[in-house]
Amino acid sequence: MPIKIPDQLPARDVLRQEHIFVMPESRATTQQIRPLKVLILNLMPKKIETETQFLRLLSNSPLQIDVELLRIDDRPSKNTPEEHLNSFYRQFDVVKNRNFDGLIITGAPLGLVQFEDVIYWSHLQTVIEWAKNHVTSTLYVCWAAQAALKSIYQLPKRTREDKLSGVYSHETQYQYHPLTRGFDDTFLAPHSRHADFDPTYLADNTDLDILAVSQQAGVYLACTKDKRNVFVTGHPEYEASTLHHEYQRDVDQGLSPMMPINYYPEDNPANSPRATWRSHGNLLFSNWLNYCVYQQTPFDLENFSEDKFTKDDE
After folding, report:
1. Strand partners, 173
2. How many domains is the chain built from?
3. Using CA atoms, how far apart are residues 144 and 185, in angstroms rounded to an integer?
4. 147: domain range?
5. Do the domain assignments include residue 178?
6. What is the pLDDT of residues 47-83, one digit of tens each?
7. Most CB within 10 Å of its CB: which of 165, 199, 219, 304?
8. Secondary structure class of 56 (helix, strand, coil)
9. Pairwise CA distance, residues 261 & 191, whole Å
10. Burial of 122: CB neighbours in 10 Å, binned 0-12, 13-18, 19+
11. Which residues, in sequence order, are bridge partners of residue 105?
12. Residue 81 neighbours by CB distance under 10 Å
């Protein structure tokens, strides 16, 4: 089944070239089925690139998905045309009285910034709190995962001495959990962050189910027991070249970054990297949509109630 996106969204042509089933909004309005409504809060500077990456993963599902894009505020963007933002992105005030089946909050390049110094921190906290009563399941990615741990569990920011960058091996902890169903015992996933997600620290200070862990990168995947909050500390949405572009950017800025681990063939940046995490990324998003969203969400979103999930979990 397809994802439904606006007819003129730039990602449409990219995804069609990859033979991904994308349904234009004009056609979807004639179908008599109820699509899942998924909201993406895009915090990344290069919004067109990021939205395309997430739409690619959301498309690999038998479910029809109605995607809407959300911006955190109305400040001008240095990396995305204002025309694009005005055409395809909603402001929070427009959606705050509605309910959604799923919400994805992306990462943000704020690893060394204290939460209280993030210009939109209070607004992000409002969105996270709003999701409790308006969203069936929320997926927090990379920086957003640490921000949600702070907002939901009051965990302080934990910063690594060195940036974690590269492709790391992870071990699946619970193969029969809905989110890890079909996962291999070990799998690869990219990371690009300064945040620290120590397994023991999270186990001692939260009630999260810790589902996948790396010896080098720490916790990769965790969720609340009701599956309404899912934390992904890496970047399953990344394209093969994304880490390369980040590394080259830091080199050009004179930051002397470490070369991404286990990424370039023969550890040579002159060699084109290959994606070794696509199958895992697609399976993770498919499981989230199926088990955390589709099988838990009410058919009539107007009947959404947090009490329903509390009672079901009990």
Report:
1. none
2. 1
3. 26
4. 3-159+197-237+285-313
5. no
6. 999 999 999 999 888 888 999 999 999 999 999 999 9
7. 219
8. helix
9. 10
10. exposed
11. 41, 140
12. 12
Rounded Cα gap, residues 200 and 85, in angstroms:
41
| 235 in catalytic set | yes
pLDDT, one tens digit per residue, over 176-188 is 899 999 999 999 9
- For residue 67, the SS3 value is strand
Q: Which of 51, 134, 142, 170 is catalytic?
A: 142
Q: Which uninterrupted H or E stretch holds 283?
A: helix 278-287
Concerning whether 266 is annotated as a catalytic residue, the answer is no
Which residue matches tokens 């550890």? Answer: 267
User: For residue 309, what are the CA distances in angstroms to 16, 103, 231?
Assistant: 37, 16, 18
What CATH code is carried by the domain that includes residue 76? 3.40.50.880
Cα of 85 vs its chain's centroid, Å: 19
Structure tokens at 81: 């045309």
In a domain, residue 134? The reply is: yes
Radius of gyration of the CA atoms of the chain, in A:
19
Amino acid at 101: D
Structure tokens at 49: 């690139």
Q: Is residue 183 in some structural domain?
A: no
Catalytic entry in 51, 68, 237, 246: 237
pTM exceeding 0.85: yes
| Residue 165 assigned to a binding site | no
Other beta carbons less than 10 A from residue 267's beta carbon: 11
Domain presence at residue 164: no
